[in-house]
Write a structure and sequence with these properties.
With 211 residues, the protein is mostly helical. It has a single domain, classed as Jann2411-like domain (Jann2411-like fold), CATH 1.10.3300.10. 47% of the residues lie in helices and 9% in strands. It is built from seven helices and six strands. The strands form three sheets. It has a two-stranded antiparallel sheet with strand order 1-2. A two-stranded antiparallel sheet has the order 3-4. Strands 5-6 form a two-stranded antiparallel sheet. The longest helix has 26 residues.
Length: 211
Amino acid sequence: MVASEASPWSFQAGNLALNFANTVDWHASKNPEELLTSYTALVNWSVDFGVLQEADATPLHVKAREYPDEAADALAQAILIREAIYRIFNAVAQRKAPAEIDLETLKEAQARAISSARLVPQEKGFRWGWKFEPPSFEQMLWPITQAAVDLLLSQNLSQVGQCADERGCGALFIDTSRNHSRQWCSMDTCGNRAKAQRHYTRHKRTGGDTK
């Protein structure tokens, strides 16, 4: 996945947990690029994806300045959970069984989250809600881990796919295409490059003009 110049969060995977797993560019390559480079970046991502409201983010920014070590620990924990989620759904996309250690990491994270969860009634059924008071450094992880568990238990699990870019994009997504044949994170980036590469190879083999 190539992030846009406007925002590193341009790609929408179709699921909150997968969006979080994709906070590394070229995740499946030898040189992945970390996008959550600070606790501030983690909070900003959470706001951009609707996990937190601006009103939730402000006290976390203040708290992070007051307690930088604790904020750094929370970021490290977030990355630990993210990598477990990525490996779990990477395995799912490849129709393999996730590693038990990664499932255990997710289970422990969800157990911590559930104590702050609540069921909120809405027009049709219920949804998960979260108590963010008092502010906790890890509060954005609660809905993310719940989303990961919910996806594992849902019928959408078979729709988890991964970008096939040979350079190692590795972005995960929910494949909602008619025949579940989606290959790329986006046709504007990896898909377009693959199309151009096929065109070049085909013309090179036939001796055609590639210009």
